[in-house]
From TrEMBL:
It is a peripheral membrane protein. It comes from Actinospica acidithermotolerans. It is found in: Cell membrane. PROSITE patterns: ABC_TRANSPORTER_2. The keyword tRNA-binding does not apply. This is ABC transporter ATP-binding protein. The keyword Nucleotide-binding applies. GO terms for cellular component: plasma membrane. Gene3D superfamilies: P-loop containing nucleotide triphosphate hydrolases (3.40.50.300). It comes from the Bacteria.
Length: 255
């Protein structure tokens, strides 16, 4: 049995009257490519923010390779890389400078940081834009630059919140291959996504979160249970949308 890379124990978070996360437990083994899926407002971003030391939980513990994220934040953060949903970058740096700077912040010597930055930019198809300012990057380019910055110190665990949003299919494939290789070397990925086809394709395990609770978790095959992941998701979460009653004006040509 492989060691547990991400251990989440009894995680809770409330915002005012809203119970955003209501007692989450997870154990993700090293070398897993894990997906966290759920409808809008289910608690994915809140959970990932707590796991990565950005948002303090009301209750619960998160261990990364046995290091407690909230008791030893410096130790835990050395082990992780994070690509948040809303990427904030140093806009006045070029892509190459950004990655190199991320490497330097992680204590990597300048020459090595520059070498890794160039390699990552190349794999992420950003090499032609390496000298352009990040401020001028498109949404997808920003995601890729953020991913490069999160990988430069070769973290044991990589957390990504909606990593492929705004990324074109060719770049998405490059990212998929990069992450698969990363996981193949024994590192661990946990990412949140709405894109079931992507999760089904790349993840070996998946957890479905709804209203702050994990409602299904296991290997992708276990959760799918003979269905597509999309169908499993719909079956488990249920269809909550109204059928459009009261929208009789919508689509009608009369005013
Ligand atoms: N800072 C905050 N203050 C108040 N409520 C918040 C805050 N952050 C999140 N919430 C609420 O907590 C719940 C979970 O939000 P969260 O962003 O974690 O969901 P999500 O699963 O990431 O959703 P989406 O798929 O739409 O990004 C939502 O009801 C949201 O309105």
């Amino acid at each position: 049995m492989r060691a547990v890379a991400i251990s989440v124990q009894g995680l809770w978070k409330r915002f005012g009257t809203k119970q955003a996360v209501a007692g989450i437990d997870l154990a993700i083994e090293a070398g897993s490519f894990a997906g966290l899926v759920g409808p809008n407002g289910a608690g994915k971003t809140t959970s990932l923010s707590m796991m990565t030391g950005l948002l303090r939980p009301d209750f619960g513990r998160i261990l990364i390779n046995g290091v407690d994220v909230w008791a030893d934040p410096v130790g835990a953060k050395a082990l992780i890389g994070v690509v948040p949903a809303e990427v904030r970058l140093f806009e006045r740096l070029s892509g190459a400078e950004l990655l190199e700077y991320a490497g330097r912040l992680r204590g990597i010597p300048a020459i090595e940081a520059r070498r890794r930055a160039a390699q990552l930019l190349d794999v992420l198809d950003l090499a032609p834009d390496a000298r352009r300012l990040v401020a001028d990057y498109s949404t997808g380019m920003r995601k890729k630059a953020a991913l490069g910055s999160a990988l430069i110190h070769n973290p044991a665990v990589l957390f990504l919140d909606e990593p492929l949003e705004g990324v074109d299919p060719v770049s998405a494939e490059a990212i998929r291959r990069l992450l698969t290789r990363f996981v193949g070397s024994g590192s661990t990925v946990l990412f949140s996504s709405h894109v079931m086809e992507l999760v089904e394709q790349v993840c070996d395990r998946v957890s479905i979160i709804d209203q702050g609770r994990i409602i299904a978790s296991g290997t992708t095959d276990e959760v799918r249970n003979g269905r597509t992941l999309h169908q499993a998701f719909i079956d488990l979460v249920g269809v909550r949308a109204h059928d459009g009653e009261g929208l009789s004006w919508l689509g009608s040509s009369s005013v």
